Amino acid sequence: MSRDIEFDNEWQALLKEIKLQLHKQNVLEDKLLQMKSNFGAVRGKFDIFKNRVLILISNQHVQEIFQNELLLQIYSHLYEIIHYQTVIVLVIQQINTTELELQQKYQIDRIIKKYEEKLNLSNIFSLSLPKINYLDVDQEQISKLKSFTCVTEENIETLSQYKQYTQDVDQKAFKGFLMYDLKKQYFLMLIRKGFNSDKAWVEERSRIEKFILSRQRQQSSILSMSTSFAQYLIQYDSQTKFYFILLSNNLIPNSPQYELLQRIRGFISSESNFQKQRKNEIESQYQYVVSDIIDAQERIYMKSKYRQLNPSIATIFQQQIKIYDMKKQKQELSLQQF
């Protein structure tokens, strides 16, 4: 996908350099590609499902966190496609292309544009407008703000919804994953998404173990428990003889938790001789992929939740841009008069 790139000799040289760096940086092992070029910052994310690297070229000034976020959005979008893992190579006008390109190129371009607009809006608000938090002001202040910013009760309610959405993002929908070996009685495959490995987690892990041991004779293969730390969905897998444990935000419904847990189980349980592998072998082989599955599933969940929000958030953005334009025009007139 080309956006402001000419397919000339310099572009061909960049492609050769990217191929070289893929080997030099051992992307298949480290799962990440990073390099600078005349076209911009190049960042790649290894996709283990298709054994390929998704490569993004960004303006040199774009921070790494935003490059990562956009790559993850694209990865999550591809992850949702049912036929993504069975893409057929077609030959059209003697140029090798894929069904994925034919069907999804437009959609991926939309994802990039939408994210780009989001960054541009963030820059406008942070650099050019006074910082106003509509959600932390009292009614008298809100009345004053309405006369200056055209904010309505409906928009304020929408902003409250948006604040709740962003809080959920900050807290992480899915906080982590780990497995428990009942026979050897130890944990493995700890993936942390929404917490640090500290004393609180050590105590929490002890609670999980006691909970599992106290219920191991129950016929139900699915267990659940909830604490102030997180809510847990626990499932015993008879094939691997491990308990699979998903940690989620306390606000997340059961259905998306169950769906994610089944995706992880489906991926890991497909492997044979799992019990014969050592702890470090299991973690080195599966931890990165499971982490990616969690990220992708969280993106899917948060996207579906975001669709439920009132679309008037976009209206607020438009109003803010109008205010910015008016202030800019006044400044220009003042300078002309001076």
Structure, explained:
The strands form three sheets. Strands 7-6-10-9-8 form a five-stranded antiparallel sheet, sandwiched between helices. The protein has a three-stranded antiparallel sheet with strand order 1-2-3, with helices on both faces. A two-stranded antiparallel ribbon has the order 4-5. The protein folds into three domains: 114 residues, no CATH class; 73 residues, no CATH class; 133 residues, Beta-Lactamase. The protein starts with 8 loop residues before the first helix and ends with a helix. It is an alpha+beta fold and 338 residues long. A hairpin with a 4-residue loop joins strand 8 and strand 9. Helix 3 packs antiparallel against helix 4, helix 4 packs across helix 10 and helix 8 runs antiparallel to helix 9. It is built from ten helices and ten strands.
Proportion in helices: 40-55%
SS element count, helices: 10
Q: Mean pLDDT, rounded to whole units? A: 75
Broad structural category: alpha+beta
What would you say the CATH architecture of the largest domain is? Answer: 2-Layer Sandwich
Q: Summarize the main sheet.
A: 5 strands, antiparallel
In CATH's first tier, which class of the largest domain applies?
Alpha Beta
From N to C, what is the helix and strand string?
HHEEEHEEHHHEEHEEEHHH
> How many beta-strand segments?
10
Low-confidence stretches: 87-96, 124-137, 144-170, 310-314
- Overall geometry comes to globular
